[in-house]
Amino acid sequence: MKLISRTGPAPRRWLWTLVAAAAALQFAVPARASVALLMEEPYGQFGAFNPTGHAAVYLNHVCAVTPTQLRTCRPGELGVVISRYHKIHHNDWIAMPLAPYLYAVDEPSDVPKSVTKEDVTRLREAYWRAHLQKLAPAKADGSVPGGEWTQLVGSSFDRKIHGFEVETTPEEDEHLIAYFNDRRNVGHFNLFFHNCADFSKAVLDIYFPHAIHRNFIADFGITTPKQVAKSLVKYGKKHPELKMSAFTILQVPGTVGRSHSVDGVAESLVKSKKYLLPLVVLQPEFAGALAVGYLSEGRLHLPKDAPIFEIGDLVPANAQDAATPVASAAPPPQGIIPASNVPAVTPAPSTAQ
């Protein structure tokens, strides 16, 4: 009997198969772990009253078993956005997958190019019916409930978002997962001392202890999204090994009202005539102190040419199924935005910590 040789081209084919499989796993998720602060612009009537905006944290290698239980991402998954909310199922924090959080859809390929108010309502209701009824139970007649659950889906329909990303490690992600999964998730939101920016500060402190600080001059000690961003930028400049980068998530075009710029506490008073003019007349010294506090401590210069975030860039171009990665010759997406393509983010001169 003639023996079949195993030293010919067959092993080489198997070798290339293994290489392709390994490449598929590598390219299916961002190559490096990162955490990104999302500083979200205010909008609507409440945004006019309180122009400090909203803060959330995007974790590209952390995913969710449920909106209140975290786990490590599997190949093809894009991570979660986690934040603190007011009066949603009595929870302190809720984690949402990236695509639903930004666009109220499950798949990046379904992101709408533009929306009307009716489109936003329809998309949010469809996602609520499919995924969120435990967090926001239906009314007695089965209809969509009111409340603040709409903040969990379609954030980019309402506002523009500024992102500040730094690299992390798998070990740091695992520590964060254990930290939140092992603790009670009971809500105690307070606009002044236990708000969404305070939560973002707590998340970032897990990765970078003591990096984020309140500003008692520009914000009267209230933690604001802008101050968290300013602290993170300052920390990133001191630690270039973290490869700090910035990006912008544009508000989806359409007929929905546009959001406006994020302000700190003193900044919002200085910029508002309805607040500033009475202060100038009644308390000129206090008005002057506000202006000095804002000019010296409250400014953050955002890069005008920050790269625009596109969720499709995070998905392999030839992936047929996000849960079933396939080999690709293209380089893997590096976090959210490649650091080499990102302009520096510069905080205004400040002595605040």
UniProtKB/TrEMBL annotation:
Keywords: Signal. Residues 1-33 form the signal peptide. Residues 325-353 are annotated as: Disordered. It comes from the Bacteria. This is DUF4105 domain-containing protein. The lineage of its organism: Bacteria, Pseudomonadati, Acidobacteriota, Terriglobia, Terriglobales.
